[in-house]
Design a protein that fits this description.
about 30% helix; nine-stranded antiparallel β-sheet; binds adenosine monophosphate; globular; six-stranded mixed β-sheet; about 650 residues; alpha+beta; 14 helices
């Protein structure tokens, strides 16, 4: 009988890597078709094929509008920041294509019988985790779970230094600080290893900080020097900028090994030969280093530890090769950072070890015999409540950040009216008291409450963060013994239905032409006036604007899906969102209203995208917006002035308790 192998995939911003556990229990890196361990996380979408990896990376500068890179940075947004063939593509779809290529390299190396753990930065919020899990599903990989990168790195470190026993569990107690600076994200995590137990004590980070930012500083430096030298020269186009970014990245890497390098930049018939010293580079990026230093100190404090309590300082991610990072950490901690595990390989190796644990656990059918892995949530989970005194909305934190997972918490709510049939809670992720500064995860609508409920009837709602950071919610009306139906309408992310459709397309292993049909159905890509075809970035998830969405006594106006799950399983039914295609298209329609650039409609043919003609479409969109605004205004007026709290779920403060 074929043995199922355990594979770990480090889906990085700039490079990805995969490892597996061999027959002797040791991790081995998997080489791609080029015989290399690192595969650039870059994809080019040709009409008849999708090219991922080195070829795409090299061709990138000549492939404007077809190339996608550093997509991990956009996970959790509605679409990748640049258009591909003029279309807006969800980032998880592009990541799905990259994973598809990794899958084929893995099959070539070890055969088809394997299951996978994919890693995410510990600091990824829930929408980004969901998007990563969805990308895995779309790629056709058989996914066991997602795991935090620093946890995986700690496992790899344990394996390398012999801290793990043959079953992969730690032998001795030790506390690690994992400093992970990759291409596009930064994490710092404090982890305690003990026999039978790997416990994350605190984690913090920045999903928008990585080697890319160091590259950009060099790009800015070159461009400003170029501009000074050749003021009449036209601004670089996309291809020229991409070429410059490659030069900057190369120069940055050279400066890790040497104290000086020279950048030669050609543009519009002019050449700039610019020597750059390491000292100059360090001074133009000092604030970036300080940002990571600040977060590191904060994490240590959050773990309740001092540097004396840390036994090892682990470096993960290619950007930790920069001497400025190592010297900052040495000055900060008084320790020499540990470089026993190759920073490019640690995460994939650790993920493979974790995959093996999960497979073992499946085999034994119970709790893992000799290892428990506990992660924490990197962001607080809250709900939007109304502060009765101040009469304003507040983020009421239910599960504070750095809480060990899994964690379930119950909150009691009361109905505000006799015969209230539905109530709605907005789920928030973030630390701020002000809801508008938090990420709106979802609207949890509890519908079809039994008729005739008295005003003030208690409703119990459970929120659960799974050990992989994914969220589930369920509710119950006590005394009636009935589970209330929870509809978790996600503000971000794709529905199960949509993920499934993309999976079918990606797994055909075709080119962009396979996408077009799906895009017509699934996306309504707005046109914009920008010459280079790029689109303005979505606001980061935490800043995304959402409109006021009061529920009515007889059902929230946002009712979009009909078969929403009462419980989200960690990997299946991830969105717990709409089960129907109609619902998903409604959800997409709403997302578009908030996030997409304006659509001038003028260049559309009647057959495109929605099937409406431009005039009809414009009337429809204007009508939709006007009626929505009118509805919101009336709703808001009623809520604020007549009965401010009407029909929102209210915290039954005296009754609150986990
Ligand atoms: P990762 O996401 O861990 O693969 O890290 C990729 C990032 O590490 C990219 O920004 C690379 O430019 C950067 N990197 C790799 N090697 C070096 C090096 N020798 N010096 C500086 N940065 C590096």
């Amino acid at each position: 009988m074929a043995v199922t192998l355990s594979v770990g995939i480090d889906l990085g911003t700039t490079f990805s890597a995969a490892a597996y556990v061999d027959a002797h229990g040791a991790t081995q890196m998997i080489r791609n078709a080029h015989g290399e361990i690192l595969t650039p996380s870059v994809a080019i979408f040709e009409q008849d094929e999708i090219i991922v990896g080195h070829e795409a990376w090299r061709a990138g500068e000549f492939s404007g509008g077809r190339v996608a890179e550093t997509v991990k940075r956009d996970m959790g947004r509605t679409h990748y920041r640049h258009r591909i063939h003029g279309e807006l593509i969800p980032p998880e779809v592009i990541q799905g294509c990259i994973l598809r290529k990794l899958r084929s390299d893995i099959v070539n190396a070890i055969g088809p019988d394997f299951q996978v753990v994919i890693t995410v930065p510990a600091y990824f919020d829930e929408p980004r985790r969901k998007a990563t899990a969805d990308a895995g599903l779309m790629s056709g990989l058989d996914i066991l779970d997602i795991v935090n990168e620093p946890t995986a790195a700690a496992l790899a470190f344990g394996e390398r230094l012999g801290y793990l026993d043959p079953k992969g569990a730690p032998r001795d107690a030790l506390t690690l600080l994992v400093y992970d600076l990759g291409g596009g994200t930064f994490d710092v995590t404090v982890i305690h290893l003990a026999p039978g137990d790997i416990r994350t004590l605190a984690t913090d980070g920045d999903a928008e900080l990585g080697g890319y930012n160091w590259d950009e500083r060099l790009v800015e430096h070159v461009l400003s020097q170029f501009q000074d030298r050749y003021p009449q020269c036209p601004k670089p186009d996309n291809a020229s900028q991409l070429r410059l970014r490659r030069l900057a990245e190369e120069a940055k890497q050279t400066l890790s090994a040497r104290s000086q390098t020279t950048i030669v930049y050609n543009h519009s018939g002019h050449a700039l030969v610019l020597p750059v010293t390491r000292d100059e580079f360090e001074s133009m990026t000092a604030d970036l280093v300080e940002r990571t230093s600040f977060t590191t100190r904060q994490s240590l404090r959050a773990a309740g530890l001092l540097w004396n309590d840390i036994n090892r300082l682990l470096l993960v991610g290619g950007s930790t090769r920069m001497p400025m990072i190592r010297s900052m950490l040495e000055n900060l901690s008084g320790m020499t950072p540990d470089i026993h595990v190759n920073p490019d390989e640690a995460v994939a190796r650790g993920a493979a070890i974790f995959a093996r644990h999960l497979l073992d656990r499946q085999g034994t059918g119970g709790a893992l015999p000799n290892l428990k892995i506990t992660d924490v949530n990197a962001h607080s989970l809250g709900i939007e409540g109304i502060n009765q005194k101040m009469r304003r909305k507040e983020n009421v934190i239910l599960i504070p950040r750095n809480t060990p997972l899994p964690k379930e918490i119950r909150r009691n709510f009361v109905t505000r009216e006799f015969n209230q049939q539905s109530v709605q809670v907005q789920l928030l992720e973030g630390e701020s008291k002000q809801p508008e500064h938090c990420t709106v995860l979802a609207n949890a609508a509890i519908r079809h409450l039994p008729p005739g409920l008295k005003k003030g009837t208690k409703i119990e709602v459970w929120y659960r963060y799974e050990s992989n950071g994914r969220l589930s919610v369920h509710a119950r009306v006590p005394g009636i013994g009935k589970e209330a139906k929870i509809e978790l309408e996600r503000i971000q992310g794709l529905s199960d239905e949509t993920v499934h459709q993309w999976k079918k397309i990606i797994c055909r292993d075709g080119g962009f032409n396979e996408f077009e049909e799906a895009l017509l159905e699934l996306l309504e890509a707005g046109e914009d006036d920008e010459e280079d075809g790029d689109i303005p970035e979505d606001p980061p998830p935490s800043k995304r604007e959402i409109s006021l969405k009061p529920a009515t006594a007889h059902g929230a106006p946002l009712a979009a899906s009909e078969a929403l799950k009462q419980k989200l399983s960690p990997l299946e039914g991830r969105t717990a969102s709409s089960a129907s295609a109609q619902a998903s298209s409604d959800a997409l329609q709403r997302q578009r209203i908030h996030a997409d650039p304006p659509d001038n409609g003028a260049t559309r043919t009647p057959q495109t995208v929605t099937g409406r003609r431009p005039l009809e479409r414009t009337i429809f969109v204007i009508g939709y917006i006007v009626s929505s605004l009118l509805g919101l205004a009336i709703g808001y007026y009623i809520l604020c002035w007549i009965r401010p709290e009407a029909n929102f779920l209210h915290l039954d403060l005296p009754g609150i308790g986990p």
